[in-house]
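Researcher: Sequence recovery benchmark, item below. Answer with residues only.
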């Protein structure tokens, strides 16, 4: 349990550094390479977190260790036990709050007061409000469906589910919750860019559709929705529609830059771990080494002819 807590704290340190890196580069990346590349930057965070949990490089082998294993305490230290219980209680509390938020959103959706949104992880479905047809024209409804369908095609509901679980596991790290908010915003911007790449002549109509959309005030942990905790996300989405789509060469360059940053972050997180103790094999223990290299002992037994005959008769 002590090792588990230490690994979790070390992984959070790596994830925090990755979050700071992404927060610093997401806006320049969006301007230079587009919203889709900026959204992919968030891959750096889970890669750094997972890399810091991988087995570290083995320390150089020194003198062989003791021949007897060290005693393992059956009782955990009080401080470690309290920390583990606090972490577990916090994770359960965060999951409970997410479940309540999901239930409230679904209840509003069944009443026709929520949406448009994508609900579900394994089999996601599109949810629209009861006045969907009255509020939007046929062209606007087509844009709404294209937006939500882009979420499903890109696998965004599964990404949001993993992000929610990541928040629950690392609930004590405020940077994780900040990252989850900006991840959702970058996800929406990337989805808008995907739709506009397919419908470049409908930018104005798309902006009008967003202004008429019932933006969600109730959180949806496991799904995709149009968030509106403030005016800023909507302003950012409308402003993004005015930007020209980056060229194919620039988008490809951004993609490989993201891949290089992800690999470098993962490798750095793995290399920053303290080396694991050298693996000592049973045959390399001191008493076993001595036995292997000790000269063989020859035992000579002298017997008379009568004793040999007696043994032969007994064997028959």
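Model:
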């Amino acid at each position: 349990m002590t090792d588990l807590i230490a690994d979790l704290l070390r992984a959070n340190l790596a994830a925090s550094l990755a979050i700071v890196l992404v927060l610093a580069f997401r806006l320049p990346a969006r301007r230079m390479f587009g919203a889709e590349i900026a959204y992919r930057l968030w891959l750096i965070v889970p890669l750094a977190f997972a890399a810091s949990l991988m087995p570290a490089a083995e320390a150089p082998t020194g003198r062989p260790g003791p021949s007897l294993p060290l005693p393992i305490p059956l009782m955990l230290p009080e401080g470690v036990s309290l920390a583990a219980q606090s972490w577990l209680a916090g994770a359960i509390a965060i999951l409970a709050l997410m479940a309540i938020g999901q239930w409230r959103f679904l209840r509003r959706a069944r009443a026709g007061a929520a949406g448009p949104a994508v609900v579900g992880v394994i089999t996601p479905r599109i949810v629209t409000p009861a006045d969907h047809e009255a509020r939007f024209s046929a062209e606007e409804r087509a844009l709404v469906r294209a937006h939500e369908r882009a979420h499903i095609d890109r696998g965004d509901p599964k990404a949001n589910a993993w992000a929610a679980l990541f928040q629950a596991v690392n609930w004590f790290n405020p940077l994780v919750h900040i990252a989850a908010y900006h991840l959702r915003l970058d996800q929406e911007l990337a989805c808008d860019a995907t739709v506009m790449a397919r419908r470049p002549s409908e930018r104005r109509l798309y902006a009008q559709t967003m202004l008429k959309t019932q933006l969600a005030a109730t959180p949806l942990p496991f799904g995709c929705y149009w968030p509106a905790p403030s005016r800023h996300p909507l302003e950012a989405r409308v402003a993004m529609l005015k930007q020209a789509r980056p060229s194919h060469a620039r988008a490809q360059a951004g993609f490989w830059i993201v891949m290089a940053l992800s690999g470098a972050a993962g490798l750095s997180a793995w290399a920053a771990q303290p080396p694991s103790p050298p693996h000592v094999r049973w045959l390399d223990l001191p008493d076993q080494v001595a036995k292997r290299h000790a000269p063989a002992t020859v035992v000579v037994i002298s017997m008379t002819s009568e004793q040999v005959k007696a043994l032969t008769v007994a064997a028959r």
